[in-house]
Structure formats: C-alpha cells, structure tokens
Amino acid sequence: MSLEKQDVLKIAHLARLALDDNDAEQYQHSLTSVLDLVEQMQSVDTDGVEPLSHPLEAKQRLREDVVTEENRREAFLANAPQTEAGLFLVPKVID
Amino acid sequence: MNWEVVIGLEIHAQLSTQSKLFSGAATSFGAEPNTNTTLVDLGMPGALPVFNKEALRMAVMFGSAVNAEIGMTSVFARKNYFYPDLPKGYQTSQMDHPIVGKGFLDITLDDGTVKRVGITRAHLEEDAGKSLHEDFHGMTGIDLNRSSTPLLEIVSEPDMRSAKEAVAYVKMIHSIVTYLGICDGNMAEGSMRCDINISLRPKGQEEFGTRTEIKNVNSFRFIERAIYTEIERQADILEDGGKIVQETRLYDPDKDETRSMRSKEDANDYRYFPCPDLLPIELTQEYVDDIAANLPELPMQKAERFMSEYKLSEYDAGVLSATRAMADYFEEVAKAAGNAKLAANWVMGELSKYLNTEGKEITESNVSAEQLGGLLVRIGDNTINGNTAKSVLQAMWEGQGSADEIIEAKGLKQVTDTGAIEAMIQGVIEANAAQVEQFRASDEDKQKKMIGFFMGQVMKASQGKANPGVVTPILNKLLKG
C-alpha cells in the first residue's frame, strides 16, 4: 500500500505539523514502508484472538470520588503568555 | 410529497460526581474561572489520568436501568482534534468498547400508546473547557473548569418519528438519570445537552435520507422547536428537488432557525485509538449484579406503585412520578396529611398554580411538603374547609407561617358548634323572609336548587367558617319549618 503526497499533507495538517515539500516526500516514503510492514503482518491468521488494547496485562485502578486538589490557579496562569480575569487568553476562535 | 421524519438523539448527561472523571478537582458549577483545575485537566505533559470509581458505578446504573448489555471490558480511546478549550489535543472517550451496550426504554406518548426506543450505546467521556468570545481585546478567553467533567453520552437508535416522540424520549432519559441520582438534570446549566440527528424520507421508503445533526440543544421546548424548524427546512429543499448536505447545524431559538456551523472538511477525522494512559476497565459479574439489584425505584415502577398503593388514577400517578423531586414531595405530603388522594389533588392543583405562576420547580417551592401536609391535616379534621384552606395556602406561600399559625392568627377555625350555627341560620331565615316563604311553597326539586342561596348566606354570615357538614342538616330542618 502506498500513500500519496496529499495523504501525508492531510495527516500533517490534522496533527498541526508544518511540513515542506521535501519533508512530505520523505515521510511519504517512510510512512509507506510502515504500512507495507502492517500489510505483511495482516497475513497472520488472527481468528479468535482478542485485539490488544494495552500492552500491559493489567486492569485499570480506580480512584475514590473525592476532591483532593486545591485551587492553584495563580500558579497555572503564571505559565501562560496572556491572561485576564482568571482566563487563559488565546488568539480569537469562533465556531 | 408525504415525508416521514427519522430522528436519533445523542444526549450528554453530566454525572453528579464530586470530583472529575480523571482528576481530583471539584466539579462544582459556577466556580470562578480556572479554579477547579489540575495539571491533568490542563493537559500538562506527564500528568496522568486516574479514573473515578463513582463515574463507573453511575454508568453501570444507567445501563441496568435501560436493560442494556454492560461492557464487562471497556476501553478508553482518544478522540483527536484541535481546539483551544481542549488542551491535550484529544478528548478521552470510548469507541469500540463502550461501558453500556445495546438496550432500550419505553416511552408513553400523549395518546397513551407505549413505544419502545432502542439505545445503541452509552459511553463515558470527559467534557472540554469553555471558550468565551466576549471582548478580550480581540482574543478568546479559556476557562478549563469544565475540562474532564464526567459525561455519559447516551446514543439512541434512529427510532423516533416525530418531534413529540423525541421530546418524550428525552424526558424519559431525564427522568431516569434524575431518579438514579446520577445527573442533576439541570438543562439550563448544561448538565444535560442534546444533539439531534434528523432526516426525511418519502413515506413507505425503507432507506434513510441524508441526515443533519443539530448540536447542543438544551431545553425540552427548544428540542421540539428545533426539530419542527429543521423538518420544514429539509422538506422545502427536497420538494424543490434539492439535496440535503450532511452537516452539523446550530439551532438559534431567537430566530427559530437552524444554521450551518462553518463546515470543517476534516471535522470528523478524529483518528480514534485506544488511550495508552488508561488500562482497560474490567468488571465482575458480581459488581454488575449488585448494582442492578440495588437500583432505586424508576419512574414507571413508581407510577405503578402510586396507583396500587394510593389508588391514584393513571394520569395522576404519571404526573406525580414525572420527576423524582415531584414524587418525593408528593409522598411526603401524603404521609404528613395521612390522605394520599387529598395530597395528590393539592400538589397537582393549588400548589402547582403557585409554582407555575412564579416559574418555580417543586424543589424551589415556598411551601415545604411538611407544611402543606400540615394544612391538609386541618382539612381532614374539619378545622377548616377547602375554601378557607386555599386562602391559608396563599398566606403560607407568602411566608406568613405554618397552617396552624395562620389559622390561629386570622381566626379561621371552622365553627362546628351546633348552637352557634343554629343561631346563625335563624338569623339568615329572619333576614330573608320572602325567600323562605317561596322555598316553603316549592316542590322538592325546586327546593334543592334554592338551598344553595341559603347556604351562601350562612357561609357569608360565618365569614366562611361554618362547617358545611354541620350547616346542611340544620338548615334543611329549619327551612322546612
């Protein structure tokens, strides 16, 4: 299976990665070889094998429903380039 | 052409946990911006989510209540998209292995017929933050208090065929989640939000038409109106030979129209994959059975019990069991009053008038269930009659005290002393000699009609305090001379 350059650019856009034409061509090749490997693996008979969703043979630990955190807003806001009225400010977005 | 509408709903119910789905921050509504946040909610590198036990229990409760298969192994997945109020760049949700699988519930329509609606699935996910587009020097403000708040997304089958059915379904879900106590059901505060999928097809056609999705509708009334508006829009396009574009739309209640959200061509390319930060959740049959066995009484069960235990009509039982708050209030009044039928009449009648006039919920009633029960006790023991009770309720609503205090302060106690009543009736007979003569000359049928006049006069003379049960026999006796 081979990827088109358009596919690479679309994937990059979804991940908000800036690629130039050279990068795109390079990734087109390397991603294609990953997909080739996957294709090869698909010839293995996996009938009756449960898909693995996590490599650890463990199950999720659960937390009691208790509020354990205090308000640390000032410390969090101090990391942001711009804040106002307790809010983080970002470039304007409208739906 | 004759169109049939096909509706499916996705309801987001915010679970009433104390802390967030993946962090120990509080979930309280209305807190100062960004004060209910942690490193996890802010998506800081290296911060890891830990799953809230109570959110899991609530999701399983819901699954049990809608007869659903429970996912004994369920998996969190990442739904990837970029938006400033989603700092991690993905929403932790569930895709292939949701906590709640296929189920169903029954809704009762206005004409009394019962319709079964399929539940496709319900999955746990975290909410995003909030973007504020007011004037921040041309910038957008981000409040992440809501980030990581637990949501249960309940997806229905496309089983509804009218706006009324859709509203009945949403009301039933609302009723179930509030009965279970897993969601406060406050739609105005966004605790329950609804996405509506709508398509039209020619009547009789098997295949579904192209659908649109109306996002984030947050009241029963808006759901109904948004559906009517969208049906009309789609029908107009189809009648003109046009095609429906599959897209996300917003309902604007002020203009009563739906409009397209700026379409992002890759909006739905979420590239889901299992979340490596969270392990699969494994449930035991014992855990699930225990939750199912301990479910609180659900709306339908409660209505049936009201009919058998209190001998209420189906209609009354339906109204009084519609919300858990209403049902609890009614039962408390019934207990305090010792008379369920009387309690039902007053809760649905007089009290509801006051609530409706002021647009209040039963939980915001000026008169508590115990106070109303106290008033009804005084009707039951003949201290006051029904008419006087109405004016006492008004005084109670205005905060003038308990029924007994008001009856005492205003001297409203019913007169049951036969001597005093006989004297009053004697007075009325003397003051209305002409009418009495006419009465005595009439036949029995006519007399029956005329007695009301004398009754009114006696009540007037007693300032409404005479006990009608005592007045009637004496009045009859004295009138007939």
Automatic annotation (TrEMBL), chain A:
- What is the protein named? Aspartyl/glutamyl-tRNA(Asn/Gln) amidotransferase subunit C
Query: Under which main EC class is this enzyme filed?
Result: ligase
UniProt cross-references to Pfam families, sorted A to Z? GatC (PF02686)
Q: What's the name of its gene?
A: gatC
Catalysed reaction per UniProt?
L-glutamyl-tRNA(Gln) + L-glutamine + ATP + H2O = L-glutaminyl-tRNA(Gln) + L-glutamate + ADP + phosphate + H(+); L-aspartyl-tRNA(Asn) + L-glutamine + ATP + H2O = L-asparaginyl-tRNA(Asn) + L-glutamate + ADP + phosphate + 2 H(+)
Q: Record's family?
A: Belongs to the GatC family.
User: What's a single GO BP term from this record?
Assistant: regulation of translational fidelity
Please give the HAMAP family that the UniProt record associates with this protein. Answer: GatC
Q: Which InterPro entries match?
A: Asp/Glu-ADT_sf_sub_c, GatC
What is the protein's known function? Allows the formation of correctly charged Asn-tRNA(Asn) or Gln-tRNA(Gln) through the transamidation of misacylated Asp-tRNA(Asn) or Glu-tRNA(Gln) in organisms which lack either or both of asparaginyl-tRNA or glutaminyl-tRNA synthetases. The reaction takes place in the presence of glutamine and ATP through an activated phospho-Asp-tRNA(Asn) or phospho-Glu-tRNA(Gln).
Automatic annotation (TrEMBL), chain B:
| Protein's GO biological process | glutaminyl-tRNAGln biosynthesis via transamidation; translation
Q: Which Gene3D superfamilies match?
A: 1.10.10.410, GatB domain, N-terminal subdomain
- Secretion signal span: none
In what residue span(s) does the Asn/Gln amidotransferase domain sit?
328-479
Give the Pfam families listed for this entry: GatB_N, GatB_Yqey
The keyword Protein biosynthesis appears for this protein: yes
Tell me its EC number(s), please.
Answer: 6.3.5.-
Under InterPro entries, the record lists: Asn/Gln-tRNA_amidoTrfase_suB/E, Asn/Gln-tRNA_Trfase_suB/E_cat, Asn/Gln_amidotransferase, Asn/Gln_tRNA_amidoTrase-B-like, GatB, GatB_C_1, GatB_Yqey_C_2, Gln-tRNA_amidoTrfase_suB_CS
Q: Which reaction does it catalyse?
A: L-glutamyl-tRNA(Gln) + L-glutamine + ATP + H2O = L-glutaminyl-tRNA(Gln) + L-glutamate + ADP + phosphate + H(+); L-aspartyl-tRNA(Asn) + L-glutamine + ATP + H2O = L-asparaginyl-tRNA(Asn) + L-glutamate + ADP + phosphate + 2 H(+)
UniProt keyword annotations, A-Z: ATP-binding, Ligase, Nucleotide-binding, Protein biosynthesis, Transferase
Does the keyword Protein biosynthesis belong to this entry? yes
* Gene Ontology terms, MF aspect: asparaginyl-tRNA synthase (glutamine-hydrolyzing) activity; ATP binding; glutaminyl-tRNA synthase (glutamine-hydrolyzing) activity; transferase activity
Q: What does this protein do?
A: Allows the formation of correctly charged Asn-tRNA(Asn) or Gln-tRNA(Gln) through the transamidation of misacylated Asp-tRNA(Asn) or Glu-tRNA(Gln) in organisms which lack either or both of asparaginyl-tRNA or glutaminyl-tRNA synthetases. The reaction takes place in the presence of glutamine and ATP through an activated phospho-Asp-tRNA(Asn) or phospho-Glu-tRNA(Gln).
Q: How does it assemble?
A: Heterotrimer of A, B and C subunits.
Family according to the record: Belongs to the GatB/GatE family. GatB subfamily.
PANTHER family for the chain: GLUTAMYL-TRNA GLN AMIDOTRANSFERASE SUBUNIT B MITOCHONDRIAL AND PROKARYOTIC PET112-RELATED (PTHR11659), GLUTAMYL-TRNA(GLN) AMIDOTRANSFERASE SUBUNIT B, MITOCHONDRIAL (PTHR11659:SF0)
Which HAMAP family does the record match to this protein?
GatB
Write the protein's name.
Aspartyl/glutamyl-tRNA(Asn/Gln) amidotransferase subunit B
Whichever gene encodes this chain, its name is gatB
